[in-house]
Amino acid sequence: MSKKGKVLLAMSGGIDSSIAALLLHEQGYEVVGITMKTWDYASSGGSSKETGCCSLDSINDARSLAVNLGFPHFILDIRNEFGNFVVDNFVEEYLAGRTPNPCVLCNTHIKWEALLKRADMLDCEFIATGHYARIRQENNRYVVSKGLDQTKDQSYVLWGLTQESLKRTLFPLQNYHKSEIKQMAIENGYADLAAKSESYEICFVPDNDYRGFLKRKVEGLEERVNGGNFVDRTGRVLGKHKGYPFYTIGQRKGLEIAVGEPLHVLEIQPDTNTVVLGTKEELDLQQMIVGKYNLIKYAKLPDDFQSLTKIRYKDPGTVATVSHLDDKLNVLFHNPVAAIAPGQSAVFYEGDDLVGGGIIERPKPLF
User: Fold this and answer.
1) Are 106 and 233 within one domain?
2) Which single residue of 18, 23, 75, 254 could bond 172 by disulfide (Cβ 3.0 to 4.6 Å)?
3) Parallel, antiparallel, or unpaired for β 318-325 and 73-77?
């Protein structure tokens, strides 16, 4: 048994988890690799070829690296768990007029849970992933903060993790920039990993066409929702649309409607199959409600907490006052922000530290 302990490493076959394996191995951990097959691309019905973490090539790459470094590697088929939870939620959220974030849900409820369960079965003290994020212990809490390479920071998708999960989690890449990881791969004979393209698509929508995915998953959906009304804030009918699930908050392109000025999707009303349109200025909001929240840095959020709040992954964030509202959080932005989408994650930061996050509920319009 290693003095450092035994760690179960999630391996996608890509450069990040592969170099994480190399680093853990060099640091003296007893490494066990595991590759989770979450999705069968053939079942998505899309036009793209199989790529990414679930492909046979990626699984073989992960296994090959484990063999080279001399540690065991397992393949874990969690397609049923993933599909029943993440994919069903994805479909249900769009049908409810919201915009889901399946990566957050997968990390919180599938990947970490699956890793910890198998770690216990394999007598592993820790689990590890190739995320660009940092973790430390402070005031009897495990605190996640942004990765050292903030251009690759992935803390946004980790807000749902519990203290129980975090106390057993390692992020081997936390003190590295992506450029250093690529150089490390080249120096250790893994130049092919450094040259590998990275996918930023949802793994079960490989062609990035979520509308086509919904049509294939929900029989008769297109016929059921086609022909609803586009309206403005006053309720005036502006035209007909192709079905409310096929639009997202903030969308401007693809509306196929001409009224003399550019319009954006402001709101989606599934009960009446209505899509509300308005000007870019009408997209600006200053308040939202956040539910199903989880706190990481604090056990209880301080009163009128000042947070840099992100409403989407690439959002630079806006300063907001966050306060408790029964079992939800009320978020008041200090400056208006555009295109707040129900169903997306609101994530709160204090400096580089991840305070927590939750699911955006319907925001309050300024108009």
Assistant:
1) no
2) 23
3) unpaired
Q: Is the per-residue pLDDT at 367 higher than 50?
A: no
The per-residue pLDDT for range 88-123, each reduced to its tens digit, is 999 999 999 999 999 998 988 889 999 999 999 999
Which parts of 79-214 are beta strand (E)?
A: 126-128, 133-138, 141-146, 169-170
pTM of the model: 0.93
Q: Which residues are catalytic?
A: 106, 203
Length reported for the chain: 367
pLDDT band at 200 (very low <50, low <70, confident <90, very high): low
Task: Provide the domain limits for residue 239.
Answer: 219-279
Same domain, 187 and 228: no
Closest CA to 265 of 134, 200, 253: 253
DSSP state, 185? H
Q: Structural domain tally of the chain?
A: 2
Q: Are 252 and 178 part of one and the same domain?
A: no
Q: Check residue 364 and give its pLDDT.
A: 62
Q: Is 15 exposed, middle or buried (0-12, 13-18, 19+ CB in 10 A)?
A: buried
**Whether residues 118 and 247 fall in one domain:** no
pLDDT at 175 over 90: yes
262: CATH: 2.30.30.280
Q: Which three-class secondary structure state does DSSP give residue 239?
A: strand
What Å distances lie between residue 252 and 42, 248, 360, CA to CA?
Answer: 32, 9, 21
Residue at 48: amino acid letter: S
List phi, psi (to 5°) of 100. -80, 165
Q: Which two tokens stand for residue 113?
A: 């849970």
Q: How confident is the model at residue 41 (pLDDT cuts 50, 70, 90)?
A: low
Distance between terminal CA atoms of the chain?
Answer: 64
Residue 237 structure tokens: 């009918």
**Phi/psi of residue 217, nearest 5 degrees:** -80, -30
The one-letter amino acid code at 193 reads: L
| Structure confidence at residue 157 as a pLDDT band (50, 70, 90) | very high
Average confidence (pLDDT) over 60-68: 93
